[in-house]
Design goal:
It holds the Pfam family APH. It comes from Actinokineospora bangkokensis. This is Aminoglycoside phosphotransferase domain-containing protein. By secondary structure, this protein is α+β, with helices and mostly antiparallel strands. It has a single domain, classed as Aminoglycoside phosphotransferase (APH), C-terminal lobe (Aminoglycoside 3'-phosphotransferase, Chain: A, domain 2, Alpha-Beta Complex). It contains 14 helices and nine strands. β2 and β3 form a beta hairpin.
Amino acid sequence: MDEVLGALFPGAVVEAGAVLRGSDRTRVRRVVVDGRSVVVKEYAEDEGWAREAAGLRALAGTGAAVEVLGESRKPKALVFADAGSGPSLSDLLLGTDPAAASEGVVQWASALAAVHVAGLGRKELFAAELAARSDVPICGMADVVAGLPAWWAEHALPRLGLELPTGVLDELHGVCERLGDGPAASITPADTCPDNNVGTPDGFALIDFEGAQWQHIAWDAAYLTVPWPTCWCAWRMPDELAQRGLERYRAGVRHALPHVDTPQFADDLRLANAAWAVITSVWFVRVALTGDQPHPDPRIVEPRRAALLPHRLEIAAAARDLPATSRFARAFASALLDHVRTRPLALAPAFS
C-alpha cells in the first residue's frame, strides 16, 4: 500500500482499484477500504485541495454534493463516497443518442440548482472552512479578470497586434462587482463542466469542486447558455434545449430564490454570458493561433478553438451595454480572421 493510502486508512484493509480520469493537478482512484468502495483524490496544488474540501464540507448534510469521508493535509488528499461509474453528461453529449443527451442536460440543470439552493446562506461556513486550510479568497472572478492583460500580452498581442483596452477590463470588473456577493450568491463548484459529474439513479452528482467559490449563481447558469465556457467539450447545444435546461434550473431554485424569475436575473445571465465569452476567448486564443491540434486523449473529442472563438466573440459583441467589450470583441474577431481559418461551431456530436 502506498504512502497516501497508508496515511488515509491506517490499519485498514485497502485494495487499490481503477485509476479514474484526473488531470495534471490531481490523481483520482477508486479503492476498496474494509470492503467499501470509495474514491481517493490526491492534489498537486494546495488551492484545489483547500477549495474542494471547504466547499464540500460546507455543503455536508444537504444531499446536494458528494460526501467527504476523510481528509489528509500531508499529503493533500480527500476521500469521497463512491458515486458509481455512471456516464457523465459529456459522455452523453459525445454519444449517439440525442434523447439521452437532452435528458442529461435537463438533469444536470437540476443538480446545479440543488447545489445552489443548498449553498445559500452558508457563506460564513464556507469562508471558515476555506480559511482553516488556505488564505485564498472565497470569491475569485475579479482575480480572473485581473490576470487577462498578462495572458493577452504574452499569447495574443505579438500575433494579432491588438491591444486589450482598459475599458474592457473596467467593464468586466463592473460585471464581477454586480455578480459578486449578495442575495443571489451561493457556494458554487465554479467549474461545472459536463465531465465533472457522474450519472446515478437519482440524477447527476456534481463531483469536482476544486474551484469552489462564493459567487453569483448566474456565473454557473451561464454554462447552459454560452455554453460550457471553461470546458473542453464546449460544443453548441440546440437553442431550445438550452432553454429547457435553464427552465429546469429555475424550477429547482425559484422556491428559495425568486430572483431567477425576474428581469434582473435575465440581465445578470446576459452579462455573465458576455463576460465568460470574452474571458475564455482570451484564454483560448493561444491554442487557436498555434495549431489547434486534436487532443492526444481519444476520449476527449473537443471542438477546434477556431470554431469556438468566433462563436464566443459574437456573444460578447452583442453586449451593447458593455460598449468597450462589444467593440473589442468585433475587433478581436476581425483580427482572428487574418490568422486563422475559422469555421462554424458545430452541435455536440449527439445532436449532429
